[in-house]
Amino acid sequence: MPVLARLIEAAGIPTVTVTMMPALATALLAPRIVGVEFPFGHPFGMPGDRAMQRRVLETALTVLAGAAAFGTRVDVDIEWPLPRAVAYKSWQPKEASPIVAMMLASMKGDAGS
């Protein structure tokens, strides 16, 4: 996403990247960054939590409108309300996809050798 943001910026359109990996976005030279410590797949917050989503969105818009320096990073200080392990499991499918099942099976095979 940071590389795409730089290309869009080069076309004259300002961008802001909302990411769970702000250090990587910084390393990849994203123009403006909003860091969140949320589970992957939920950059704007918990499903149905409009207040959380609005806060992330307002932060992103503020950074987009007011960041003077390229590479500006602002981290949102919202803590995910569930333990990380619970949060990750809550959006995982009950059954592994075929590729994940194959990878898990091969790992079990390696453990026995």
Please give a structural write-up.
The protein has one domain (2-82). Helices cover 47% and strands 10% of the residues. The protein has helices at 2-10, 22-27, 50-66, 84-90, 98-111; strands spanning 17-19, 32-35, 72-75. The model has no long low-confidence stretch (mean pLDDT 85).
Describe the SSE topology:
Layout: H1 2-10, E1 17-19, H2 22-27, E2 32-35, H3 50-66, E3 72-75, H4 84-90, H5 98-111
Parallel strand pairs: 1-2, 2-3
Comma- or semicolon-separated keywords:
single chain; 113 residues; mainly alpha; 3-stranded parallel beta sheet; 5 helices; 3 strands; 10% strand; globular
Q: What is the strand tally?
A: 3
Strand order across the largest sheet:
1-2-3
Largest sheet features: 3 strands, parallel
Order of helices and strands: HEHEHEHH
Radius of gyration: 18 Å
**Count of discrete domains:** 1
Total number of helices:
5
State the separation between the terminal residues, measured CA to CA: 40 Å
The fraction of residues in strands falls at 5-15%
- Spans of at least 5 consecutive residues whose pLDDT stays below 50 are none
Mean pLDDT: 85
What would the principal axes of the Cα set say about the shape? globular
Q: Which range best describes the helical content: under 10%, 10-25%, 25-40%, 40-55%, 55-70% or over 70%? A: 40-55%
